[in-house]
Amino acid sequence: MADGNYLRDERLRVYLSAHTHHRLVLADLTLTEMFKKNALGTARSSLKIMADFPDQIFALKPTHLWLDAKVCSEADLQQLIDPDRSADIRQLTRDYRSEEAIPSFVERMKAREGEASQYMRQLSDQVRTLEISLQSLLKEFRVEELTQIRTGQGITSTLQEKIFNLVDEVTVEFVKTNQEPGRTAPLKRSEAHGMFAYRYALCVVIAFTRWVELGRQVKSLDHRLNDVVDNQLAATSTYFNEVLTKDRELRIVASNAKDVLKHLGAFTRPFPDEASAG
């Protein structure tokens, strides 16, 4: 996986050219980032590298279409891939280089920009939800526990269990809000580990602990919106090898989430260095 900014990084070319088995998976939000502002210019610069490796590019279904998926194996990943969107992205890489297709390409970029901008406005509603969640999470911890999280020292088994319980609570809240509004049955951890809801909740809680570690600084609306995007990208990336990004916090949250999932025995794909070592 890669975030929107990394699509224009020459290191992506190095990765894709290293082996034909190296694939790039584009999440819904990565595509949104690509088209949300100045879509024509951004898309051209983003497609420049991908155009050289069209058969190695795959697009995921919009997240809301696979919330019920329980990914427990490599084969289950096929549930997440969208063949039509993948074909559409490959067509864009061809149109990007075709003089004849330029007029239609320009029109498509205008349409994509409108769609992406609208989606980002909808996503901004989740910022308020995230703020409420952060304030609620703060209330769950005693002062000494927040100190343990901030310093990383003296973390007790009780605190660890409290953190895992919070992940469970955020998971259930996500499921009730986005999947099963009337759900009353408990959600088993073993059942939830393969679901996006659990992985997103895990990333939200990890990002919260990072926020505490870094001093609970006040963030602008744009930064808070970026946190929502990053948590979703981090959660999605846990199904794949890694997320290619220059964003340090996104990389840390995604990596820590994968480590936790591996510890829990949930399905994860190895990091590239682990795969080559195996």
Overview of the molecule:
The chain is an all-alpha fold and 278 residues long. The protein has one domain. It has a two-stranded parallel sheet. Helix 5 packs across helix 10 and helix 9 crosses helix 11. The chain is globular, with a radius of gyration of 19 Å. It starts with 9 loop residues before the first helix and ends with a helix. The model has no long low-confidence stretch (mean pLDDT 84).
Quick structural overview:
The protein is an all-alpha fold and 278 residues long. Helices cover 63% and strands 2% of the residues. The protein is built from twelve helices and two strands, in the order αβααβααααααααα.
Rg from C-alpha positions? Answer: 19 Å
Q: What overall geometry do the principal axes of the alpha carbons give? A: globular
For the secondary structure, the number of strands is 2
Assign the structural class, choosing from mainly alpha, mainly beta, alpha/beta, alpha+beta, or little secondary structure.
mainly alpha
How many helices does DSSP assign?
12
Domains (count):
1
